[in-house]
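Quick illustration for those who missed Monday's session on complexes.
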Amino acid sequence: MNLRAIAALIICKIAFEGKSLSECLRLETAKIKNPKDKAFVKAVCFGVLRKFYYYDFLAKHYLEKPFKEADQDLHCLLMVGLFQLLEMRVPDHAAVSETVSGAAKLKKPWSKSLINAILRNIDKEKIAAINTLTKEAYYNHPMWIQEKIKQDWPAEFRTILEVNNEHPPFSLRVNLQKTSRDNYINTLSAKNMQASPIQDTPGGIVLETPVDVEKLPGFKEGLVSVQDGAAQLATGLLKLEPKLRVLDACAAPGGKTAHILETEPSTDLVAIDVDQSRLDLIKENLTRLKLSAKLICADAADVDKWWDGNKFDRVLLDAPCTGSGVIRRNPDIKIIRREQDIENLNLIQHKLLENIWKVLKPGGLLVYVTCSIFPEENYKVLKDFTDKHNDAFEIKIKEYWGQDCEVGKQVLPGKNGMDGFYFACLRKL
Ligand SMILES: C[S@@+](CC[C@H](N)C(=O)[O-])C[C@H]1O[C@@H](n2cnc3c(N)ncnc32)[C@H](O)[C@@H]1O
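Prediction with S-adenosylmethionine bound:
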């Protein structure tokens, strides 16, 4: 087993087959037994993907002739080698020799001398002085995303791109049914883990140094869960009260489902997701937290197939989206997403909102959420909906976080350490 070859194969599947990082990591690292080795592959993949366009530029810069289409795994292996030399604390000789051995593991031993020659002759100062970087390589985003963000958020454009390329904070949600945020921060501190509150949230904290979740005090007992700060804002908008009937329409992996139940355990909650394997993750999460909800695997828009006719007091629609607000957590989004996806997802967002509206009680509240910063997936969907439905009335979000949009509010990536999320609240008249 060669860890560099595994990382190269994963990056290749993302870059050339459009697969997702989480899926590739799960499948390709399943056989790695040593947790340190697993963590190494993960760190290399995340690192290369965060600066994919830069390493792609560098690899092309050093290759006299690009690799053939069938040998793109070698192109990715070269990026893996460059990343180790420039950003990792691996000794240079080990980085080079292990990467070169990776070429043999990829069954392409003919490329060993070429990869060896390039990596051995890397001059870090010369690389830092390269001033012919393309815009893609400089900002580490494809041009369409750069142009889109520049058009949608001209004043915040550079900051958003910078934040997207950073390591995200390790954010947690303290289970306020079981302990207080201050207590949990003190418990962490007693174990030499420093954490600070996420100011906009009731129970959010950021841990200074990430650790394996199993090492978090009380994790198994449900004292704490991993969740970004902005994702924790959705539950407050639902204005929960005891014993309400609530629908979580696109629920997996269940971060918000669990937060709803932690906040108001008497909630009669139905959680739906179209993907059974992701629905299983909700079950896992709820079991750890000793919470329960009715879980249904269905297309939430196909109301006739899953609905029992009892209307809901609250609906959370955390709609599928491009994920343009969470690029720092999922750097593969920059590579696998296409501009056309916005339109395709938009059809789904409209359809979900349109059909789910029918199951909301008159007087009930619907909270629409995405982890996107593109207006087409956010306020424009809501604007279009409220224009067409005279029983839909926007409840303005009167919180000090986020930026007001024509409808709803946007948190931009990095604001108060949070991910980019959009929120809107509709009351049914
Ligand atoms: C943004 S994620 C939800 C995150 C989740 N609410 C949480 O807080 O953990 C969107 C989810 O919508 C699901 N999904 C996509 N289309 C759907 C549909 N038509 N009906 C139900 N679920 C859908 C996806 O499988 C995905 O799990």
